[in-house]
Amino acid sequence: MMNRLSSFSDNQKSLILSLNLSSFFFVFFFFTYCFFYEFYDWFSYEETSVVELSTFLMYLFSGIVLLYFSFQQIRGGKKWTKFFFYILLGLVFLFVAGEEISWGQSFLRFATPKIVERINEQDEINIHNLIFFYKKFLWFDFWADAFVFGLGVFLPLVYLFSKRIRNILTRFNFPILPKSCIPFFLTGFFYSYGLSLTKIIAYTELLEQKEFFIGLGFTFYGLHILSRVNNETGRYSDTQTDEIRK
Question: Which of 105, 114, 147, 185 could in theory staple to 152 by disulfide, Cβ–Cβ 3.0 to 4.6 A?
Answer without folding.
Answer: 185
